[in-house]
Amino acid sequence: MQPSLDTAPALLPILDELKQREPIFHRAEFGTTRQQFEAMTEADFWEVGASGQRYSRDYVLDVLEQRFQHPAEDVWETSEFHCRQIAADNYLLTYTLKQGARVTRRATLWRHTAEGWKIVYHQGTVVAAA
User: Fold this and answer.
1) What are phi and psi of 29, to 5 degrees?
2) Looking at the record's lineage, which domain of life comes first (predicted)?
3) Is 90 domain-assigned?
4) Residue 92 sits in which domain range?
5) What total of structural domains would you count in the chain?
6) CATH number of the domain bearing residue 94
7) Which helix (H) or strand (E) holds 104?
């Protein structure tokens, strides 16, 4: 039933780079300000949250701006990373995120640009209890 999630050997360096950036918007070394979050997302970025709601880039940036004005402890654990190239300079990174009792499967579409890595799309899906 489970898919094979082995990353191709040629993509392992990219997998290592992208793992360091996930979960997105939770790594202070990559940004804590709206300007930094704008720089790491494509202009047409959007996401689907674990609730199933779609969120625009502007909405996500507004939420992040508020979150980082009042930072709180953020305990999480990532695992099961997989990277697949889907087009030239475009990569799908999937992984599992555990935040307390909540477990989600995450998917981020990354684009490598002249300015560095940019997030094109992100989705989180809650894992149902077995």
Assistant:
1) -65, -15
2) Bacteria
3) yes
4) 9-126
5) 1
6) 3.10.450.50
7) strand 102-113
Would you say the pTM of this structure is higher than 0.85? yes
CA distance 130 to 121: 28
Please indicate, yes or no, if residue 4 is contained in any of the structural domains.
no
The one-digit pLDDT tens for each residue of the chain (130 residues) are: 888 899 999 999 999 999 999 999 989 899 999 999 999 999 999 999 989 999 999 999 999 999 988 888 889 999 999 999 999 999 999 999 999 999 999 999 999 999 999 999 999 999 987 6
Query: Please, are residues 118 and 42 in contact by the beta-carbon 8 Å criterion?
Result: yes
Whether residue 109 is contained in a domain is answered as yes
Within a domain: 3: no
Residue showing tokens 């997302």? 41
In the block, which residue shows the tokens 């999937």? 94
Torsion of the alpha carbons at 8, 12, 17 and 22, rounded to the nearest 10: 50
